[in-house]
Amino acid sequence: MWLRLMAIAFLANGLGPFGLRVLEDKGLLAPNRLPYLALWYAGGFLLAVIPFLRRPARLTRSELSIGIVMACCSLGGQLATALALAFVPGHIAFSVTTGGNLFIVAAAGIFMFRERVGMYGSVGIILGIASLLLLG
Question: Rounded CA gap, 55 and 9, in Å?
């Protein structure tokens, strides 16, 4: 169950900004940013609910609270990116938002939680930086 939900989150998290980029390139983002994000997050919610309903589990209040906070942060970040595209070019906005996330998560893991970065973690960070360079 966990793997299915993580795969859905991974897919949905990557395709959302891609749609913003496409709308921005076609000049359709300004009038459509809120409907796009509303449909995107509603679809992501439905995709996540389907596996949950097939194998229901009892959610605790803290799990539900964390999920809602994460969803609000994600939506806020996507909305901020969509709004930033009105002022800066896409290659800058997406590099900053994606690179900022990569940097904050890696730095928090290393400095706050004292995690050791192994070979797979190092490869992941290097691939993340390489993808930023390629997409920029």
Answer: 18
The token pair that represents 11 in the structure block: 């897919």
Q: Which helix (H) or strand (E) holds 109?
A: none
Domain limits, the chain: 1-87, 88-136
Q: How much is the pLDDT for 111?
A: 92
Q: Phi, psi (5° rounding) for residue 28?
A: -110, 5
Token reading at 81:
């990116």
3-state helix, strand and coil shares in percent for the chain, rounded to the nearest 5: 85, 0, 15
Q: What is the DSSP string of 22-70?
A: HHHHTT-HHHHHHHHHHHHHHHHHHHHHHHHHHS--PPPHHHHHHHHHH
Asked whether residue 135 carries a pLDDT value surpassing 90, the answer given is: no
Give the single-character DSSP code of 111: I
Residues contacting 43, CB < 8 A, separation 6+ = 12
Question: Do residues 132 and 95 make contact, with C-beta atoms less than 8 angstroms apart?
Answer: yes
Take residue 73 and report the two structure tokens written for it. 């942060």
